[in-house]
Design brief:
By secondary structure, the chain is α+β, with helices and mostly antiparallel strands. The chain is built from three helices and six strands; from the N terminus they run ααββαββββ. A six-stranded mixed beta sheet has the order 2-1-6-5-4-3, covered by helices on one side. It is globular and about 40 Å long.
Length: about 130
């Protein structure tokens, strides 16, 4: 699990860098070729090209920062599941809190990539103790 935890720290640093550098291609490179974002509005954004375009839309909407809380990991030989709370900040407007789950898949070369990424928005009226 230590190796996966190190990988996850690198992924999170890469996400921060993609946001800071406004780089949709970097963000998309963290996913498998068949990677899919399952968005709160019910869309399935499939493949790196579509993920890069989606991330570009978030940046255009003012996405400037993401932090994570209460991250929990379940790690197997070829699949790992990450679950937690993500807090997205935008240039204007309130922060967006989400419960999320990401499925990571080990590649043939031993590296890990995100394969499925799903989140649900948490309304401001939801008490913190139920998150």
């Amino acid at each position: 699990m230590v190796a996966f935890a190190e990988h996850l720290a690198e992924v999170h640093c890469s996400v921060v860098r993609a946001i800071d550098e406004r780089d949709p291609a970097l963000f998309a490179s963290l996913y498998t070729d068949a990677g899919t974002l399952l968005t709160p509005d019910g869309r399935a954004v499939r493949g790196r090209e579509a993920i890069a375009e989606e991330f570009g839309n978030w940046l255009a909407a003012g996405f400037v920062k993401q932090t994570l809380e209460d991250v929990d990991l379940t790690v197997g030989d070829t699949v790992a599941v990450e679950e937690g709370i993500a807090i997205g900040e935008f240039a204007e407007g309130p922060e967006v809190r989400s419960n999320y789950i990401v499925v990571h898949v080990r590649q043939d070369d031993g590296s890990w990539l995100m394969h499925r990424d799903m989140w649900t928005h948490v309304g401001a009226d939801v008490p913190a103790e139920v998150l």
